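Researcher: I'm comparing several assemblies side by side, and this is the next one on my list. It has 894 residues spread over two chains. Same procedure as the others: predict the full complex and return the structure.
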Amino acid sequence: MFKRLFLIATLLISTSVYSISVEEVKAITLGETDARIAALGKAMQTADDKTATFLQALSDDAVKIAGDKVFVVKDDKAFDAVTGTELALPDDAEDVINNNRMRGEIDSALAALKLFSKDDTVRAAAVKQLQSDADETKLPLIEKALVTEQNPGIQEQLGMVRAAALLNSTDKAKRLEAAKLLATSGQANTKTMLLARLAQEPDREVKAALGAALRQVESALAWGDKLGALFSGISLGSILLLVALGLAITYGLMGVINMAHGELMMIGAYATYVVQGLFQKYLPGAFDWYLLAAVPVAFMASALMGAALERSVIRFLYGRPLETLLATWGISLMLMQLVRSLFGAQNVGVENPSWMSGGVQVLGNLSLPFNRLVIIGFALFVLVAVSWLISKTRLGLFVRGVTQNRPIASCMGVNTARIDTYAFALGSGIAGLAGCALSQVGNVGPDLGQGYIVDAFMVVVLGGVGQLAGTVYAALGLGILNKFLEGLTGAVLAKIAVLVFIIIFIQKRPQGIFAMKGRSAEA
Amino acid sequence: MNTSLTPVSLPAPAPLLSRTGWAAFLLALMVVCAVAPVLNLLVPEGSLFHLSDYGVGLLGRIMCYAICALAMDLIWGYTGILSLGHGLFFALGGYAMGMYLMRQIGLDGNYKSALPDFMVFLDWKTLPWHWTFSDSFVATLFLIIAVPGLVAFVFGYFAFRSRIKGVYFSIITQAMTFAAMLLFFRNETGFGGNNGFTDFKRILNIPIATPNMRMTLFVMTGVTLLGFFLLARWLINSKFGRVLQAVRDAETRVMFSGYNPLGYKLTIWTISAMMCGVAGALYVPQVGIINPSEMSPANSIEIAIWAAVGGRATLIGPILGAFIVSGAKSWLTVAYPEFWLYFLGALFIGVTLFLPDGVVGLVKKLKGGAK
């Protein structure tokens, strides 16, 4: 766009006469900022391509003044800013200095002028830029553009920009009209705009109209807000579910307090990072699909680590939960330091594949990012796979058998020690899957696991030990509760409120949502 | 039939300390009150026997940790309740002290205001309500004990009443500390946000950075530690202490014998929290800072490892454990900073796997083998 303007500009400079007058040019370039801005606003009323060219030159710092003459410098040649004839640049010519405020004004004036571009994306961008700093001086241009605009989407946006420009008019009738127009907008920034205006509005009638408009906008936004909170709640819940599912197996079924669970997640995330690096190096063409390869790798990396831990440490501590807590905490410290030694203490960058970036726009203020949608689907997939594994396969049968009655299972010929290893490896592998998923939405660093371990235990404790269904309800419930509270109180207070809620809930139901029944309950 | 009761002869209550125990205790008291101050203040700096200011600070800090370990031993070693929330009580005591120290800065802060610097920074005009008593030293001494005690009492009452125990209790206490940490990180709660309190100038109008003041705090910490040791010893030797150990070993049987464990558990839990609060209050003027990271779950778990390394249910063990682990930490984090977490991790694993009774248990075993 700039290039094209310049092309036009150079053509015009050599052939035609400027419509922008000498007085206007001088007023825009010389004097105090306030006066210059006023002059700029006035020039915008009758602006055309020539004005645009001059403003572009001004914005590019290509304007010089000498005495009462204004020059546009282009390719080491100087042209008269008004007539466009080539002139010799006097030695005492000085640069025109634009301060930040002037620069902002010039940019938004240029944006207004870009409303007449032939390129849809340029016009859309110009509309977007104008939205934040629309004022009355640009109104004639906006209205002119509105008449010629063909694209319905841009037209609608432009209508909103016009309303925004009207909103700050000195004319009361125009402000009333703006309030009426803006009331139909379902966008979040309309609300901020109305609130800002309402704060400084002197006229009572306009104030009432603005208030009514604000209420209408708010009610339109309310649905999007609610659905948005619900969606991010489900999204958080699905992450919690992924994080807690592995723990539900190691803690819930096996009774092992695995404080290193977070670090097993971290291993999964780093495995994803390594796979990404390998793809970048050896298979750059298939980079978009690295995540598919990373899923099994992350699972296996964490599962093998889990199996090794079970064989070397945890198996000696069965039945002593408090000791497992301490020993696995030690393991977690060592794993964190190991990752720091190998990959450095800084976070590493894991990129989303291109098909995971972006999102679907559902409502004016509600868009669902693809990476969140993918993770919800992934959590569902893992959940189904795990419950199938536990309830339908031979391994699941053995795990349940060993959990319920180890001696009898052993008598039936089940190799209980091996089942313990498999079960722990399974739980660890699921932690790895969680880590793989987390790498797509958050930072990957040595501390990744620490941020989730308290949450994960909360979910399992709330859900009830040994209950996969409870884990699911607890994860989703906590996720949604957390996000709705966040809307009311802010993130940190919401988190505290949820923790307090859990502590109180455990008072009432010490065994979680689904209490274990029968003899095992007292164990 | 003879219905008169047969007199049962109970074993005489164990003495508070054996003769060698008293000797060791008096020796420790002398080291704290006389030897260390002399070595620090009177022996010239170049001498081999000079105790550096850094050494005094380190020993003072470790003695604070030892108080925490002792408190942990009462609740974990003798009552069987693993708390992962003792870091909170430590920090609460520390914050109570810190508030007083902040007020003692007076007009000497960066902004020359009577309000603590961070409040000026946040553009607050008056002290929040919970700072009301912070200019009184007596009230601060009361709060140091009362605040952790009250929090522990309320939390413990609900937890023990609904018979939360074992791992559940540990995890819930961890969540409690975590929630408190998040809360203290907030600026608007009036505890200085993530910077916490620092830049202390004086205590009781006496400058805090002088050698004499440092030594005074050191001696106070040492005397407190030894005093708490005697208190703990007396508690566990009493009937109350025996019920605690019975609760640890078989709570259900204790209940069938007609005892209600709630009162016992709640009492020792609250006492333990108060001890931690005192430790925190002694710690803050010595290190010159308190911030919410003291409440991080890792800190509370470290207290447990001190107790485990030294040997649970031995009283002297946890104190030793605090010295061994913290001493190793201050050496390793300087000499081999990469190595420290490996060491600490290996210690967690090694002690649980190979030394269930800790260092004291190992010493006992070695002695037994020698006989």
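Model: For your comparison table: The CA atoms of residues 19 and 25 of chain B lie 10 Å apart.
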